[in-house]
Here is the input.
Amino acid sequence: MAVDANSSFITWVLYILQSSWPLFLRGAQVTLIISLSGTIIGFLIGVLIGIIRTIPIDHNTNLFKRIVLKIIDYFLLCYIEVFRGTPMMVQAMVIFYGSAMIYGIRMSPIFAGVFIVSINTGAYMAEIVRGGIISIDKGQFEASHAIGMTHAQTMISIVLPQAIRNILPALSNEFVINIKDTSVLNVIGVTELYFQSNSAAGNNFRYFEVFLITCIIYFIMTFTVTRILRYFEAKLEGPSVYTIHGSQTVPEAEIKISTGSKKNGKNH
Amino acid sequence: MEKIIKINHLQKSFGAIEVLKDINFSVSKGEVVCIIGSSGSGKSTLLRCLNLLEIPSSGEVVYHGQNILEQKMSNAVYRAKMGMVFQQFNLFNNLNVLDNCVIGQVKVLKKNTAAAKKTALDYLELVGMSQFINAKPHQISGGQKQRVAIARALSMEPEALLFDEPTSALDPEMVGEVLKVMKNLAKSGLTMLIVTHEMAFARDVANRVVFMDSGVIVEDDVPDVVFNNPNNERTRIFLKRILEN
Ligand SMILES: Nc1ncnc2c1ncn2[C@@H]1O[C@H](COP(=O)(O)OP(=O)(O)OP(=O)(O)O)[C@@H](O)[C@H]1O
Ligand SMILES: [Mg+2]
Here is the structure.
């Protein structure tokens, strides 16, 4: 296909697709890999922290355990606040170049990308999971303790299944945000979709056409992921109304979502 | 009569507020004791102290001659022996009716699942909920939830059952079905401690009625005496107020 400066917009778009599709494909792949694994690992970090931060401290907790928990809680809170309070792009720079300079660790860009997205997501999920755990009514904890189950047994069998079910929408939300936000990882040379688009644009200086294609690819990814996850959420049984505790864009927001399911359990 | 539980000088404070003051009483095997009293008098707190959901500030909770506050016995084992039924049912929302009654047996009593299911089914049958074993809590009515909660407590094969206003959260038309189950349990010889505002039920079913006021036991006697001829003026006033409503 021959193109020149006078070729039509459509011709350029087709030309770019034809000549640069491997770049777009590889970029999209890296974006998906990093955002998916980052979301999953971040979720696991969030669950772990959510569990730790909701360990009950009461008058029969002994002093040692109390102090240890307080210290751990303090560090976790620092982690959450710092990672929620700074841009991921800057975190990427600090971690990538910092680890190289201070520890002499040369991370591969992909590894660095997964690492950064994971701990960033972890900071958000930690609060979301904690909110999910707290929102399970105290009565179920009491009933569980009243039949002799320990706190750990209660969490595993009763509370976490419900809490995780309730935060699934927030988790999907994080995933979509991560698909978009991995674009900032180009600053440390991660060859995700934005990075590859830049290369494609550099080849022929058609920024508008290239980034329009990029835009569409991002949208296809987020749209598909949203639909798939919503399908699974709807399949899982659960209360028809639940609360998302915080989100990456509005961390303090509590969004009530109604799936409008046929069951209208009045205790929810 | 064999004493299952005996409370000596039990005292409980929340911060500066003394909610229970020098409580002494005991429950024998097979006894049905109803606890009545106005709101805030400490009835729930007393029951919760008996199950260690609240730790008493001082005093003794003696279970078969052993003070359980001295931690000789694990809390889990003791709690399994003191079943509790709550006003708000507190069923496990992620589990179906059957699993609500199975989980404690498996996790706490370490029974195998098949045996636990069998026990659970027996008790669900007893409370008339055996057709609903696959339902989730949000699919059944309040009265049904409370009957499942009773079956869940019974499935642990407790020595005694503690009820904290089991019918107070129910729509009036569902109160009867739950009271009927409780009446049958009483007849079967189960030891029960019931905080209730259902005076007719207390009069009918209880072996003893305890009247509490501001953290003390004012009256502890057979229903006939408490309801018809109370020793204390405060009991008289409380009953008069209740019966007027
Ligand atoms: N966890 C707590 N912290 C502080 N105060 C409490 C706590 N639990 C109960 N109280 C107080 O203890 C007092 C007795 O409460 P309790 O729930 O035992 O009363 P009750 O007799 O069960 O009342 P009701 O009939 O309304 O259920 C009340 O004044 C209550 O405010
Ligand atoms: Mg009460």
